[in-house]
């Protein structure tokens, strides 16, 4: 069908009282950003609905993008006709026929914002229902749970018909919760944590620690590729890479093996604290899940959180690995995450890290290294890039891919 507009219903934002305008404006901006390469589109973000005028753009492609935008409950592709009942009949019959299968039932649901139109909603429901019954063989009316709901909206600028409702991504518009910084490794969990944070409206920047030459170019490319996948949910993301080699080498040399992991994590957290404050972020996000590995116990969190007073948010904290994997598959990060490029933590991981490190010991061992100097040099080595959806960072690694597959 040649649709004229997509009608978008807002999610939770309708309950947000006086912040509503802000939410709607953010959603409007995010939708425009997600659809920036469809030049003919016009987006009108009104108080209770958003209307996207297609002006000839491909509705299927537009809807594929819309499905990823947080803050949308659902949407319906619609066709506009003039305020003329014959035109309404013709389009309505075509729409229902396109969906009809033997045995299906339907109902008509009319809303009217143009109260001057010559028929009221009940009259329109009856007249149009009669037309459908006459022209679609075998179809029956059913008020409760019909197979097809034909929605009709009489507005000043025409009459809009739709018969499909497509589920949106839910959540809140990205940006409405402020800025957060995700610790993005190359693993399965942190991209899922990032996605869940973005879903609650966080404008997420991606921070990746890398340790050349111990970690490869591929490992870095993989983290960027994950960032690009997450960027589909916000239009673009900042990717912040922090060199971690010198810190890891120094810790390896000066800290007893049982506390290598804890002290490394403290340094990561210190750097997260510094970069988050510098860039006006409000919280640190990571992919920790309680009990999953040695560093993810509550004692470990006590020993690591000690270095920051910012909130450290862990969206996947209570999820099972299988639940995390399911989300990773849904958001298309899983296949990337399981590619076997070592990240900086695996390489310096001691064979038996302390599962219940002591805070005072962690502090004492950390004093053996030059925290300020190491941090300063790491901060000086930071690079920041803007990453967009659909970019390909793994291209250069094609040969490696070929071997893996
Ligand atoms: P993931 O699957 O996200 O890598 P994991 O189960 O492997 O998680 P760890 O390796 O212990 O867990 O890391 C815990 C968290 O620390 C990660 O979820 C991530 O948020 C952060 N992290 C680990 N390595 C890095 C890195 N190189 N750069 C940025 N953050 C990291
Ligand atoms: Mg990991």
TrEMBL record:
The keyword RNA-binding applies. Pathway: Cofactor biosynthesis; thiamine diphosphate biosynthesis. Its main location: cytoplasm. Its EC number is 2.8.1.4. It catalyses: [ThiS sulfur-carrier protein]-C-terminal Gly-Gly-AMP + S-sulfanyl-L-cysteinyl-[cysteine desulfurase] + AH2 = [ThiS sulfur-carrier protein]-C-terminal-Gly-aminoethanethioate + L-cysteinyl-[cysteine desulfurase] + A + AMP + 2 H(+); [ThiI sulfur-carrier protein]-S-sulfanyl-L-cysteine + a uridine in tRNA + 2 reduced [2Fe-2S]-[ferredoxin] + ATP + H(+) = [ThiI sulfur-carrier protein]-L-cysteine + a 4-thiouridine in tRNA + 2 oxidized [2Fe-2S]-[ferredoxin] + AMP + diphosphate. It comes from the Bacteria. GO terms for cellular component: cytosol. It is found in: Cytoplasm. InterPro entries: Rossmann-like_a/b/a_fold, ThiI_AANH, ThiI_fer, ThiI_N, THUMP_dom, THUMP_ThiI, tRNA_STrfase, tRNA_sulfurtransferase_ThiI. Residues 60-165 form the THUMP domain. GO terms for molecular function: ATP binding; CCA tRNA nucleotidyltransferase activity; tRNA binding; tRNA-uracil-4 sulfurtransferase activity. The keyword Coiled coil does not apply. PROSITE patterns: THUMP (PS51165). Keywords: ATP-binding, Cytoplasm, Nucleotide-binding, RNA-binding, Thiamine biosynthesis, Transferase, tRNA-binding. GO terms for biological process: thiamine biosynthetic process; thiamine diphosphate biosynthetic process; thiazole biosynthetic process; tRNA 4-thiouridine biosynthesis. CDD domains: PPase_ThiI, THUMP_ThiI. ATP binds at residues 183-184, 208-209, 265, 287, 296. Belongs to the ThiI family. Catalyzes the ATP-dependent transfer of a sulfur to tRNA to produce 4-thiouridine in position 8 of tRNAs, which functions as a near-UV photosensor. Also catalyzes the transfer of sulfur to the sulfur carrier protein ThiS, forming ThiS-thiocarboxylate. This is a step in the synthesis of thiazole, in the thiamine biosynthesis pathway. The sulfur is donated as persulfide by IscS. This is Probable tRNA sulfurtransferase. It comes from Lactiplantibacillus garii. The gene is thiI.
